[in-house]
Amino acid sequence: MKITYSIPREGAPVWMENLALLKDAPHPQQGYAFIDYILRPEITAKNSNYVGSPNGNKDATKLIDTQLRENPAQHPTKEVMDTLYPLETPPLRLERVRTRVWTRVKTGT
């Protein structure tokens, strides 16, 4: 089954990824070195091309594959970005329903 992503004109949740170290990480210097490496534009672009998703590194964006960079679902216009909103943590009962529905979508049942 192929699942694709599109943004409806009414808007959709926005998401972002973060790199962070735990407060009590045993080797913080190595963690920071890894984050510095991952954020290098050429490395970030390689990751984007491999997983097929956008990134937040402006210098890396010009290095990603044209097909990915020009995909409006991956790099929406400002007008579309203005319709996006952050998700709030749902009540546990609703989260369970959402998980069940998504599982049914993925399994086709």
UniProtKB/TrEMBL annotation:
Predominant subcellular localization, coarse grouping: periplasm
Q: Name one GO cellular component term.
A: periplasmic space
UniProt record, GO biological process: polyamine transport
**Could you list the residue ranges that cross the membrane?**
none
Q: Where in or outside the cell is it found?
A: Periplasm
Q: Which GO terms describe its molecular function?
A: polyamine binding
What keywords is this UniProt entry annotated with?
Answer: Periplasm, Signal, Transport
Mind telling me what this protein is named? Answer: Uncharacterized protein
